[in-house]
Design a protein that fits this description.
Blueprint (H helix, E strand, L loop, with lengths): L4 E9 L4 H11 L4 E4 L8 E5 L2 E2 L2 H16 L10 E9 L6 H14 L14 H13 L32 H6 L3 H9 L12 E2 L7 E4 L8 H21 L1 E11 L13 H9 L5 E2 H8 L3 H17 L7 E4 L16 E4 L2 E11 L16 H14 L1
Antiparallel strand pairs: 1-3, 1-4, 1-5, 2-3, 5-7, 6-7, 8-12, 9-11, 10-11
Helix pairs in contact: 4-7
C-alpha cells in the first residue's frame, strides 16, 4: 500500500530581506509560499511553503520559487540550512496528491498563511521511531545520510557533529517509546537555544509533522526534491515492509510508583503500595495503616482501578479478594475482604507491530528507493566526497 504523505519545505537564504522576497513572490504570481525572518547566524530569510504532497504540481511550485530566488539575488552560505517536514499522518482516503497540493495552496492564500490539513489519524510512534533509527544508524555507513550531505552538515554520532543539526544517540532513540520520550531523547543535555537543532526534530509533532533539519542550504530545486523523496521513502518502507497493524498482546508491569502525580505522600499512594504486593492487602490492614474508613478504602481502590485503566492497563489489574480467599469465613466481616494490584498484566492493543526477523524489510535507507533515484544519489555522493 502506498500512503500519501504531506510535506513542507523551509529554505534558508541570505542577501535579501523577507519584505523584498514577499514582494517578488507576489509579482511573479507564485502562491503557497511566504518569506519570513530567521534568527540564525548568517541567515537573512526563510522561505516556507504550505503543506504539499510529492506530485508534479508541488515540484513545479518548488522549481518556480528556486528560480525566482536565484534571479533576485538570494544566496546560501554555510549557515543556511534546508528543513523538510514530513506529515506524521497520511492523507485521508480518496485525497489525491494533486488535489491536496492545489487545495492547500489555495487555502494558504485565502487565509493569509494558515496551514491546510486533510489527514487521517497520526502514525503509531513505533513507525516514526523506526524511521529515526534507520536514518541515524546510516550515519557511519559509506553511503549513509552523512555522505549525502555537505561536510559542514555531517555528524558521526560520536561527538563529532555540526552545530546546526545533531543526531540523537541511538541508545536514547531505542529506549524511547512515546513522542514525549523521543523529544526528551533528542534534546537531552542541550541548552534551550540549541534544542531545536536536532537532525530529526520530534518537537514538530505537535504541528502534525516530523522535521528533518540536517541538509545544507540550497536553492537547487532538484536537490531539495530528491532529498524530500528520500525522506518520504523512509516512511513508506517502514510502513509497508517493517510493520504490520492489528491486535498485539504483551505482558507488562503495572507502575511501581503510584500514578497520582498530584497526591505526593497521600493516603491513596500508601494504599496503592500496600495493594501492589503478591496477595495484596486486606481492607482491615489498609484501614489500620492509613486511618481511612472501610468506605474510603473501597473508593480509593475504585479510583486506582480507573487511573490504571487511563494508563492503558485492564481493569482486571486490580483484583478484589473475598474473605474466603484471605483465609476467613463469610460473615467474619467485610473489612476482611482485600485488594491486590497485579505486578504483571497481559495487555492487548491495536496498532503497529514490528515484523519478526524472518520477514521484516531491510533497514537500509536505500531500501525501496527506485534505481533512478539510487543512481542520482550515488553520483551526488561522489560529488560531495
Amino acid at each position: 500500500m502506498t500512503y500519501i504523505l504531506s510535506c513542507g519545505f523551509e529554505i534558508e537564504g541570505a542577501g535579501i530581506t523577507p519584505e523584498f522576497g514577499n514582494r517578488a513572490l507576489a509579482r511573479a504570481g507564485i502562491k503557497g509560499w511566504m518569506c519570513k525572518e530567521d534568527g540564525s547566524d548568517g541567515v537573512d530569510i526563510e522561505i516556507m511553503s504550505c503543506p504539499m504532497a510529492f506530485c508534479p504540481s508541488a515540484f513545479n511550485s518548488l522549481k518556480s520559487v528556486c528560480d525566482l530566488l536565484e534571479s533576485i539575488g538570494c544566496v546560501v552560505n554555510v549557515g543556511c540550512g534546508l528543513h523538510i517536514h514530513i506529515g506524521n499522518a497520511p492523507l485521508k482516503d480518496g485525497v489525491t496528491r494533486e488535489a491536496f497540493t492545489n487545495e492547500s495552496i489555495a487555502y494558504f492564500e485565502n487565509t493569509n498563511g494558515e496551514l491546510y490539513t486533510n489527514h487521517a489519524e497520526p502514525f503509531d510512534v513505533a513507525i516514526v521511531k523506526d524511521v529515526a533509527i534507520r536514518y541515524t544508524r546510516s550515519a557511519l555507513q559509506p553511503n549513509g545520510v552523512n555522505a549525502c550531505l555537505a561536510k559542514s552538515r555531517r555528524d558521526d554520532g560520536n561527538g563529532n557533529h555540526n552545530k546546526w543539526a545533531r543526531l540523537t544517540p541511538l541508545p536514547l532513540l531505542e529506549a524511547a517509546n512515546t513522542v514525549e520520550e523521543l523529544i526528551i531523547a533528542s534534546t537531552l543535555g542541550r541548552s534551550n537555544y540549541s534544542r531545536k537543532y536536532s537532525a530529526v526534530n520530534f518537537k514538530a509533532w505537535a504541528n502534525g509533522t516530523v522535521e528533518f533539519r540536517q541538509h545544507q542550504g540550497t536553492i537547487d530545486a532538484c536537490k531539495i526534491w530528491n532529498w524530500g523523496l528520500l525522506l518520504e521513502n523512509l516512511f513508506q518502507h517502514s510502513l509497508n515492509n517493517r510493520f504490520t497493524s492489528g491486535t498485539r498482546t504483551s505482558v507488562t508491569e503495572t507502575p511501581s510508583i503510584a500514578p497520582f502525580v498530584n497526591r505526593s505522600g497521600g493516603r491513596i499512594i500508601d494504599q496503592y503500595n500496600l495493594m501492589r504486593v503478591a496477595g495484596g492487602c486486606t481492607t482491615r490492614d489498609i484501614m489500620m495503616i492509613t486511618g481511612c474508613s472501610e468506605g474510603s478504602v473501597r473508593r480509593a481502590a475504585s479510583l486506582i482501578r480507573d487511573r490504571l485503566e487511563e494508563n492503558g492497563f485492564p481493569r482486571l489489574a486490580v483484583i478484589q479478594h473475598d474473605q474466603i480467599s484471605n483465609g476467613h469465613r463469610y460473615g467474619d466481616g467485610t473489612d476482611l475482604n482485600g485488594y491486590e494490584i497485579a505486578i504483571e498484566v497481559t495487555v492487548q492493543g491495536i496498532g503497529a507491530q514490528m515484523l519478526p526477523e524472518n520477514s521484516i524489510g531491510n533497514a537500509s535507507i536505500w531500501a525501496g528507493v527506485s534505481d533512478e533515484q539510487y543512481q542520482w544519489w550515488k553520483d551526488r555522493i561522489v560529488a560531495l566526497a
